[in-house]
Specification:
The chain is mainly alpha-helical. It is 41% helix and 9% strand.
């Protein structure tokens, strides 16, 4: 299961820019990918884009967010959407995917207690719950929601996570793919026509068109039925996964829903971030005050914050692998977002990045190794195999980035 199949390509064969640039307004670089490898015919990375002034697409969106979007009008659009889907017979009228983080707490609470909806919350659980993550999940459900947690076959999930780490240095790829599908899949199963996620992809510059389109593009969660076996998962295409000893039932949780079913059942997938001026720090305060959310007792490894992505012991390795592949660690992602939302200056963000970015997530390292069934030597062999010479060089006996934000 160590990979090495013909589909694997080096990082910079996947379309990342050869000239590294940092946004002049925030701190992100043009190495930030905007999409996850999912389908064989989409295995080229796309990055956020920069305008002629060196401003990234995420910052461009935030200019719209603060200066041009009429948020009163957006809230009226939300009320009209919810009125159209609201049911009076006690059945569910909206699906809210989440795991009890600040965003899912905010979305579900507002929908139920402000707008009178009857949400069904659905969860694609973390690989390994942290103590604080499980506590927040329980607090979320104690807030008064029905919940369905779908646990994929753990043997298969661990196997796919291991292969994704070894082949792609992307241990979260199977998790992300399943997480994207859980909302629409449960909507189809329970005959609910509305799915509401939290943050819009426009926030991070992934898809700035979502600033103007209330519905999420179906390509992010569905695919024509005839293409469902074109998934690109953990470094393999569908048939190669079957050759690895998996069967079609094993792959069903990761297979996107058929586009034809979405259209037939009129399922709409939306982001609350289209209707709400989304500021993560404010969602944190809301979740603390209204939903019983608790932050980490200590600073999260790799960054300066205590309240983002707390629920999974594997989460730190997702951000550490982005640091290795793209030169962008957890402190970069979080501080860039806070610069855009006017909570940090660029200079403050740079200082935080220089202090915390790339910090190794030591706390759960042994549990992560055990989970994906590799030893420490193999872990570092894989890590170093994915260090691009464009980004990394050896200084003495230590790896250092060639380019850092200044």
């Amino acid at each position: 299961m160590s990979g090495g199949n013909s589909e694997l390509t080096s990082l910079h064969d996947q379309g990342l820019p050869q000239e590294i640039k940092f946004c002049k307004r925030c701190v992100v670089s043009n190495q930030r990918p905007s999409s996850t490898v999912e389908f064989k015919n989409q295995n080229k990375k796309e990055t956020i884009f920069f305008d002629e002034n060196g401003i990234c697409s995420a910052c461009q969106y935030h200019e719209l967010k603060y200066n041009e979007i009429d948020w009163d009008d957006r809230r009226q659009q939300l009320e009209m959407l919810l009125d159209r889907h609201r049911r009076t017979d006690g059945s569910y009228d909206v699906i809210v995917p989440g795991s009890g983080g600040k965003d899912s707490m905010f979305v579900s609470h507002v929908l139920k207690y402000k707008y009178g909806m009857n949400p069904l919350t659905v969860t694609w659980p973390p690989h390994m719950y942290t103590e604080i993550g499980l506590r927040n999940f329980e607090a979320w459900l104690d807030g008064g929601y029905d919940n369905i947690s779908f646990h994929p076959n753990r043997r298969v999930h661990r196997m796919l996570t291991r292969m994704a780490f070894v082949n792609l240095l992307h241990p979260f790829q199977p998790f992300i793919l399943g997480q994207k599908q859980i909302g629409p899949k449960m909507a189809l199963k329970y005959n609910v026509n509305l799915v509401m996620y939290g943050e819009s992809q426009a926030e991070g510059g992934t898809n700035i068109s979502e600033a103007f389109e209330p519905k999420m593009n179906p390509k992010y969660y569905s695919i024509p039925r005839e293409e469902q076996k074109n998934i690109y998962l953990s470094g393999y295409v569908y048939q190669e996964l079957l050759d690895q000893g998996l069967d079609e039932g094993d792959l069903q949780p990761y297979t996107p829903v058929a586009l034809e079913d979405i259209k037939e059942k009129n399922v709409e997938v939306h982001h609350m971030g289209f209707y709400e001026k989304w500021r993560p720090q404010e969602k944190y305060y809301y979740a603390v005050e209204n939903c019983g959310f608790l932050p980490n007792p200590d600073r999260t490894e790799g960054t300066y914050s205590k309240y983002n992505s707390l629920d999974d012991k594997a989460d730190g390795f997702h951000y550490y692998t982005t640091y290795i592949k793209f030169g962008l660690g957890r402190a970069t992602y979080e501080s860039a977002q806070e610069v855009r939302n006017r909570h940090l200056t660029r200079e403050e963000a740079i200082a935080l990045i220089h202090r915390y970015d790339g910090e190794f997530p030591r706390k759960y390292f042994n549990e992560f190794l055990e989970y994906i069934e590799i030893d420490e030597d193999m872990f570092w062999q894989v890590i170093n195999r994915f260090r691009s010479p464009l980004l990394w060089h050896m200084v003495g006996n230590k790896w250092e980035l060639r380019h850092v934000v200044e």
